[in-house]
Amino acid sequence: MTSEMSAIALREATPGDDEFLVRLYGSVRQEELALTGWDAAQCDAFIRMQFAAQQLHYQTHYPTGVHQIILLDTEAVGRIYWANLKDELHFIDITVLPEYRNRGIGTPLLKRLLAQAASEDKPARIYVESFNPSLRLFERLGFTCAKAEGYLLLLEWRGENHA
């Protein structure tokens, strides 16, 4: 857990965050990259290409998406990307640097957005791979599997008004 004195905050992502965001994206791809036998330059080029493709996909499919940097005190430790759509609040991506995971950073941010979804009488949804450790976090927050396509799960949260 974070210490009593630590403050979790959000700010809008800017082009100045790109290097941090590339490093953050790369942090979730390390295990698979270790299997490639590529050198550091090849891995870096791959991460940058994949990150750019991901960003383009998000911006194309979620033009109203909100892209924010997660701060612990003043240090960037992650990102959250979400979109308040007509029929749902959709979590596009939430990633925290490995050294800050399991410290209670994501939970209050997600709860804040779930409260927003509930106040607007909307479900919240996110796609998560079945092997992603964050699946446990979403289950603790009350998300259930709405649809499974192979290893990709569509998780859904419905507030009290959606029973």
**C-alpha geometry:** globular
Strand order across the largest sheet: 1-2-3-4-5-7-6
- How many structurally independent domains? 1
- Low-confidence parts: none
* Total beta strands: 7
CATH architecture: 3-Layer(aba) Sandwich
Q: Given the structure, what is the number of helices?
A: 5
Note the quaternary state here. Answer: single chain
Task: Please characterize this protein's 3D structure.
The protein is an alpha+beta fold and 163 residues long. It has a single domain (8-162), classed as Gcn5-related N-acetyltransferase (GNAT) (Aminopeptidase, 3-Layer(aba) Sandwich), CATH 3.40.630. The protein is built from five helices and seven strands; from the N terminus they run E-H-H-H-E-E-E-H-E-H-E-E. The chain has helices at 18-27, 30-34, 40-61, 106-119, 134-140, and strands spanning 8-12, 66-72, 75-84, 89-96, 124-129, 144-149, 152-157. Helix 1 packs across helix 3 (40-61). The longest helix has 22 residues, at 40-61. The radius of gyration is 16 Å and the shape is globular. The mean pLDDT is 92.
Key traits:
Aminopeptidase; 5 helices; 7-stranded mixed sheet; 163 residues; alpha+beta
